[in-house]
Design a protein that fits this description.
By secondary structure, the chain is mostly helical. It has one domain. It has 15 helices and five strands. Strands 3-4-5 form a three-stranded antiparallel sheet, with no helix packed on it. A two-stranded parallel sheet has the order 1-2. Its EC number is 2.7.8.2. Its main location: membrane.
Length: 421
């Protein structure tokens, strides 16, 4: 009794990764580096081991942030991390990008390319989105603010769109400017600048920084701080990605003679889940400080990120099984979040105290319970899916081995053939 139905497992044999990367940065700068970098890894290192190693570096970066700033205070006069921490964030993110780029190359070198690698790679990327949003907003001196929440929404929306597009088109499409390439390099630059000049640098007004305050017409534009200007730039990028992703899906659907409006309904799960999270986060400040202005802010974002990772994991599973597992249009965690939100709004709705969140301790209990529940559900999903795929396909997750017809495990050679051992 596994997680994936038997007929869906059969579809795994039909899966083949398809991807398009139009990034000039990737083609002319990064890809030659990645092609060399992968040769440094022994052939007995599994691709998923490389992927997990990259995510482990991000976990270390995140743990460093929480060690120096456990309450995530980066408002003016708040906690400023040592310069070396920001430099380590830059190095760690660049390392993650490199590891994430070469795991597929290692899979082809060892003959281990397949749906498990797709699931594992995207699962790690999904968790990284929230962690990097928190780290980047700290470096930008945004801290606990709606700008940080906006960053969370934008990064998750971009990832959801990419997964949604891949589900409908059958291939992963990265444009001339994409989050996994140029977006990551921009955040690496942000970490580096914060290490050199401190996060307060990002409070500098953009027109002042560019020395355009005396320029006719230009000086009439809003003189936003650099960090807020970066958020506005990200919003324009999100709208562009929405239009571009839908154009690709529309073109694919029209070429196959399918309707072009139905895929839009598959965007509703993100709208619903994000709406519930934002509603809880914006609850009235009646009995205790709002989550946004308390040390519960980061645990709340992490719980949200884990729920998101599980949901997009189910989307990817639907893709690699060719709808053998259905596209997730509903998630039971929405019910939990809705109940938590309703409890927080009881003073405004029914003029009565919240059942649980009537005190700071009650709200902390609910947020940390949500975090634990989100972690357990996502861990269960990962373990069960990995077990189902490895058992069915006769492969190992973290070693370069395959099970032969004789029932014995075999190490895989560089050409993909199996050698009994």
């Amino acid at each position: 009794m596994g997680y994936i139905p038997r007929d869906a497992l059969e579809n795994l044999h039909k899966y083949a990764y398809k991807g398009v990367d139009k990034s000039l940065t990737s083609k002319y700068i990064l890809n030659p580096f990645w092609t060399w970098f992968v040769t440094l890894w022994p052939l007995n290192v599994a691709p998923n081991t490389i992927t997990l190693s990259g995510l482990s570096i991000i976990f270390l970066n995140f743990a460093t942030l929480l060690y120096y700033d456990p309450q995530y205070l980066t408002e003016k006069g708040g906690v400023v991390l040592p310069s070396w921490v920001y430099f380590s964030l830059a190095i760690g993110l660049f390392a993650y990008q490199s590891f994430d780029a070469i795991d597929g190359k290692q899979a082809r070198r060892t003959g281990m390319a397949g749906p498990l690698g797709e699931m594992f790679d995207h699962g790690c990327d999904a968790m990284n989105t929230t962690l990097e949003a928190v780290l980047a907003c700290h470096a930008l001196n945004l801290g606990r603010s709606w700008w940080t929440v906006s960053s969370q929404v934008a990064t998750l929306a971009n990832f959801y769109l990419t997964t949604w597009e891949e589900y409908h088109t059958g291939q992963l499409y990265l444009g001339v400017f994409s989050g996994p390439v140029e977006g990551i390099l921009m955040i690496v630059a942000i970490f580096t600048i914060s290490g050199l000049y401190g996060p307060a640098f990002w409070d500098t007004k953009i027109l002042t920084f560019l020395r355009l305050t005396n320029m006719p017409y230009i000086n009439r534009l809003p003189n936003l701080p650099l960090n807020e200007s970066f958020m506005v730039f990200g919003a324009f990028g999100l709208f562009f990605n929405i239009a571009n992703s839908y154009a690709n899906v529309r073109r694919t659907r029209k070429s196959s003679g399918s309707g072009t409006s139905r895929p839009l309904t598959f965007l509703l799960p993100f709208v619903v889940s994000a709406g519930l999270q934002l509603a809880w986060l914006a609850h009235p400040r009646v009995t205790s400080p709002a989550i946004l202005y308390s040390p519960l802010f980061v645990p709340f974002l992490c719980a949200w990120g884990l729920q998101f990772a599980r949901h997009v994991g189910r989307m990817i599973l639907a893709h690699v099984t060719q709808d053998g597992c259905p596209f997730p249009l509903f998630d039971w965690m929405w019910v939990w979040t809705a109940l938590c939100t309703l409890d927080a709004y009881l003073p405004a709705l029914l003029d009565r105290q919240p059942l649980i969140q009537s005190s700071a301790k009650g709200r902390a209990f609910l947020v940390y319970t949500t975090l634990a529940l989100s972690f357990v559900l996502y861990a269960q999903f990962c373990v069960r899916v990995i077990n189902d795929i490895t058992n069915f396909m006769g492969i190992a997750c973290f070693t370069v081995r395959k099970k032969g017809k004789d029932g014995e495990w075999h190490h895989v050679q560089a050409n993909g053939d199996a050698k009994k051992k």
